[in-house]
Structure formats: C-alpha cells, structure tokens
C-alpha cells in the first residue's frame, strides 16, 4: 500500500516538475490539489494500524554543522555568493 501511494505521489511530482515553464519569471506553477482515490481512502486505516502496531522508536536528530563550502571546480570566483549573503562565508 505504501509503495503504491509513494509511486502515485512521485508520479504527480514528476508531472508537476516536467510541466514547469522555466523560461518565464514565474515563481511557481499553479497547484490544484486532488482528492485521494477511493482505494487510497480505504487503505489508509490499514496503514495507520501498521504504524500504531510498531513500537514507538525515539530517533535522535543528527545536528549537522558544516562550514559553507563550494568545490573548487564549481567556484567561478565571481563573489556572487558573498554579495548575496556576506554573513554566510
């Protein structure tokens, strides 16, 4: 059930991304929410039951602290990054 739902969501995401017009200055395309299919609505309680049946597991969040870095081949030495946000570097 999860695989089917994930596949459907990824398909929608692909359609939205492939349909974007990057030639215009539009920030983002209009998004129309769709209601879930009847099969997905019926399958939803099963997924909730599976999740509830699992023992609660506390996950520790990893705090990733790294200095900003651009690989040398990717850096054009234009200083645009410093002009955009001088506090970052």
How would you sum up this structure, described in words?
- With 89 residues, the chain is an all-alpha fold.
- 43% of the residues lie in helices and 0% in strands.
- The protein has one domain.
- It starts with a helix and ends in a 5-residue tail after the last helix.
- The relative contact order is 0.08.
Short summary:
The protein is mostly helical. It has helices at residues 2-18, 38-53, 80-84. The mean pLDDT is 69.
What order do the SSEs take from the amino end to the carboxyl end, as H and E?
HHH
Count of separate DSSP helical elements? 3
State the total count of DSSP E strands.
0
Query: How many domains comprise the coordinates?
Result: 1
Strand content: under 5%
Structural class assignment: mainly alpha
Q: Could you describe the largest sheet, including whether it forms a barrel?
A: none
Fold blueprint:
Elements: H1 2-18, H2 38-53, H3 80-84
Structural descriptors:
flat
